[in-house]
Amino acid sequence: MGLLPPLLMVVAGSVVIFNSGEEADSVLQGFTIANGSAEDGGGIDCHLSSPTVVNTIFWGDTARGNPNEIYLDTVGSIDITCSDIEGGW
Fold this sequence. Notes:
four-stranded parallel sheet, 12 strands
């Protein structure tokens, strides 16, 4: 069996938040993001930012208002490659 990626889990709130103008050189790589629960994006909540996500798994995150795994506001962008997002994005 190969190595499993590091696991980030929270009980309440988004697991990862980008909201300080992060750009493409802000890279989240090689993690499993699981069990986040928030109003917007239980896995990632992205506001006014444009981060890069590589080789990351999103699983079991929930949101009350917007997409379960990843929320992206209309101002930012997010580059996701070689990642697995439960239910798509």
